[in-house]
Design a protein that fits this description.
Among the domains are: about 160 residues, no CATH class; about 50 residues, no CATH class. The chain starts with 12 loop residues before the first helix and ends in a 13-residue tail after the last strand. It is an alpha+beta fold. It has nine helices and four strands. A four-stranded antiparallel β-sheet has the order 1-2-4-3, sandwiched between helices. The radius of gyration is 32 Å and the shape is elongated.
């Protein structure tokens, strides 16, 4: 009688193909640490152009999007027309998103991502300062964006400093050691030495991370201190940008410094008035210079 033995059937080519196509198990990706979790520049641009919607709630960034002006929207949609303005708007949106996500940081900070974000803002400010807009309208948009981004960078730094100054989470109240009850049962602390050590280690890491944030923000303030730069217009004082309308000769003068106009700039504006030009302040730090309006000429009442 033949011995019945179990034999293993060879695998078919189809089974081998299925096994080869089966994806290898992937490790779960850990969420990025703040501000590395801020959407990228490419994503921010698509959001600003209205071509991308994000699932995460970013109220500050959404408010910025809703308040875009017409020149800003045109700069976002047309490549090469106002690159400096478009890049600055992307930096503004990412800065707003970082402020929105700051509360979810939980004391953990990606110092490299933070430095990169601050460098992006600083680069945008420098690019705006050196921009030579083609029209007065674009010049005003660039000027307003420069001032707004400067203030938003200061507000961001204040928020980060406030977060870094937050005291560490208080330790749980120590559990009192009770005397043995009458039944002979013992009461123990709810936190053993190993748990207490781990909790203190987490608190120290959080404090260290926030100190890194404070140092990075302080370094940003030192590196972004404005320096004296020559004007793009011959004879104009330093730290000014001047845009001239070729048709009318009207000029838009912008100060690249925050705060009141410097004595040099005030003296130069007075010189323009002395030449018979009309100087009108449009916004803080922005002036319009053009030919003075002539009084209308009326016909005389003399007899022919």
């Amino acid at each position: 009688m033949a011995n019945d033995q179990d034999s293993q059937l060879p695998s078919t080519s189809d089974e081998n193909a299925v096994a080869a196509q089966a994806p290898a198990p992937r490790k779960l990706e850990q969420p990025a640490t703040w501000p590395g979790n801020v959407p990228s520049q490419a994503q921010a641009l698509e959001v600003l152009r209205g071509r991308l919607s994000l699932a995460v709630s970013l109220p500050g960034a959404r408010k910025l999007l809703e308040k875009l002006t017409q020149p800003e929207r045109e700069a976002l949609l047309v490549d090469g027309q106002a690159d400096a303005l478009r890049e600055a708007l992307v930096a503004r949106w990412r800065l707003a998103a970082a402020r929105d996500l700051l509360l979810t940081a939980g004391g953990k900070v990606d110092a490299e991502a933070l430095n990169a974000l601050l460098a992006e803002v600083d680069h945008s400010l420098e690019t705006l300062r050196a921009a030579n807009p083609a029209t007065p309208e674009l010049g005003l948009a660039i000027d307003r964006t420069w001032e707004t981004l400067t203030q938003e960078a200061v507000d961001f730094s204040s928020d980060v400093k406030a977060a870094s100054n937050q005291p560490a989470a208080p330790a749980p109240a120590p559990v009192a050691h009770h005397r043995p009850a009458a039944t002979g049962k013992m009461s123990f602390d709810t936190e053993n030495p190993e748990q207490a050590g781990r909790r203190k280690k987490v608190q120290l890491l959080q404090i260290a991370a926030l100190v890194v944030v404070a140092l990075a923000v302080g370094a940003y303030h030192l590196s972004s201190t404005p320096s004296s730069k020559p004007s793009n217009h011959a004879g104009a004082p330093n730290n000014t940008l001047i845009t001239t309308d070729a048709k009318t000769g009207t000029q838009v003068v912008r100060s690249t410094l925050v705060g009141p106009a410097s004595p040099e700039l005030r003296a130069w504006l007075d010189q323009q008035k002395a030449k018979g030009l009309e100087v009108k302040e449009l916004d803080p730090g922005t002036w319009l210079i053009g030919p003075a309006q002539k009084a209308p000429v009326t016909a005389g009442n003399g007899s022919p």
